[in-house]
Amino acid sequence: MKSLIILLGFVACAFATDCGMLQRIKVKQQWASVYSSGIAREDFGEAIWKAVFALAPQARALFKRVGGDDVHSPAFKAHIARVNGGLDMAISLLDNDATLKAELNHLNGQHKERGIPSNYYDVFIRALHAVVPAALGRCFDHSAWDACCDVIVEGIRH
Question: Which superkingdom, per the lineage (predicted)?
Answer without folding.
Answer: Eukaryota
